[in-house]
Design brief:
The model has no long low-confidence stretch (mean pLDDT 94). The longest helix has 17 residues. The protein has a single domain, classed as TIM Barrel, CATH 3.20.20.190. With 268 residues, the chain is an alpha/beta fold. The protein contains twelve helices and eleven strands. It has an eight-stranded parallel β-barrel with strand order 1-2-6-7-8-9-10-11. β7, α8 and β8 form a beta-alpha-beta unit. Helix content is 35%, strand content 20%.
Length: 268
């Protein structure tokens, strides 16, 4: 009986240690004071396509913060774009990371006059607008080149910006190399990704078991999955800053038990 109790105690201790986020920092309070427009205040049926300069300007002019996605081109330029491939937004069935920035400049977003912007173009446009920057690693979950490039770009800017990613290795990079930048881990149920990523990885990501590597300052959780046991335990024990994603349209209300929200469409 005693060995079983000891083993159980060790497992509980390891679990609590592994899900522990970073200690609360004063800077995180700033980010909780804003609501964040998902990929800008976009309208993919009109003149403000997602992750475009026009959508970001609209969000800025409306007094919102901005959530955006960054990834890297074949020639190591950091651009703002969500999907791994260009088919949905640009009509080209190719992976973004296989093209150079010059090649991307020949494409438009949903047949508008907007193109895929460089990250530094967006930073210049948004100025002091608070930014949640999601790091995308579509080519390989181990390829940290995007983190290095983002880090170098931020040396020339001083935006009100925090980084987030589903990939704990990306957040660990900023923990080690840019600890002054507020960082967050993205998570959700991951039921859709189990076949691709495997049961073990999706279980670990859903249950925040790699927080000990990333030490996130905030946790961005899909609001429909907020009943996840580990998310609730983490909130109860450590009280980290929490971000709800993504609240869409008039029919979804901002969850009251999150500190702030990433929203899409009409925010209520």
């Amino acid at each position: 009986m005693l060995p079983i109790l000891i083993i159980t105690a060790i497992i509980i201790f390891l679990y609590i240690y592994m899900i522990k986020p970073n200690k609360k920092r004063e800077r995180t309070r700033f980010f909780s004071g804003y609501k964040y427009a998902h990929r800008g205040l976009f309208d993919n049926q009109g003149e403000y396509p997602e992750n475009s300069l026009s959508a970001f300007k609209k969000a800025k002019d409306s007094g919102y913060g901005v959530e955006l996605d960054v990834q890297i081109t074949a020639d190591k330029k950091v651009v703002v774009f969500h999907d791994g491939d260009l088919k949905r937004m640009c009509g080209l069935d190719k992976k973004l990371y296989t093209l150079t920035y010059e090649e991307l400049c020949g494409l438009t977003l949903l047949n508008t006059g907007e193109r895929i912007p460089l990250f530094n173009e967006v930073l210049e446009l948004l100025g002091d607008t608070p930014i949640i920057c999601e790091i995308k690693m579509h080519s390989s979950y181990r390829d940290l080149e995007i983190c290095k490039q983002v880090s170098e770009i931020l040396e020339n800017y001083s935006p009100k910006l925090c980084v987030e990613s589903f990939n704990p290795l990306a957040i660990r990079y900023f923990r080690k190399n840019n600890p002054e930048i507020v960082r967050g881990i993205l998570s959700k149920n991951f039921s859709e990704e189990r076949r691709e990523l495997g049961l073990f990885i999706t279980f670990a990501l859903k249950n925040l078991l790699l927080n000990f590597l990333a030490k996130p300052d905030f946790i961005a959780f899909r609001h429909n999955d907020k009943k996840c046991f580990t998310f609730r335990i983490c909130k109860k024990l450590y009280r980290p800053l929490t971000v709800a994603w993504t609240v869409r349209g008039k029919d979804e209300k901002a969850p009251a038990d999150f500190d702030t929200v990433i929203f899409e469409g009409v925010f209520t």
